[in-house]
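User: Okay, second chain of the day. Same drill as before: sequence in, structure tokens out.
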Amino acid sequence: MTEFPEPRGALADPAALLARYLEFYRATVLRKLRSLPEAELRSSRLPSGWTPLELLSHLAHMERRWFVWGFLGEDVADPWGDGRDDRWHVPADRSLEELAGFLDEVAARTDEALSSYPVTAQAPPGPRFDDEPPTLAWIGFHVLQEYARHAGHLDVVVEIAVGEVGE
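Assistant: Same drill. Structure tokens below.
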């Protein structure tokens, strides 16, 4: 289990702190998902209808949209590939481990951006941002809050399904 990154010690670099918190939340989401049986990964217990695998796909695509497509300005295949018909979607043949691998690839690119650029660097204008592109710090905190919020959503679903909850 990845230990919660409490603000202690000498770590004060904002980019390193963001990278550490993102690592924690990614690990938390994967731990919770791995505690569920396959049937629970692909079914919904909520009126909104999303499944735990769809949430994982959303998080991986969301992080890639913000850091790789948005901040790094790279072309990515199907940046909105986590959705179909105005809701999250995962093809039936995509497994938890395949999506976890995709998340790991995205995480490596995020870590690369956070370690290679100052947090004050601004994203380039392009297909993701046009008028006033955000800074790396803004993107990092936006993505961090998405993870924290969705990890909480997942906690409720996993608790109902009798999986592993908490930090």
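The radius of gyration is 16 Å.

User: Thanks, on to the next one.
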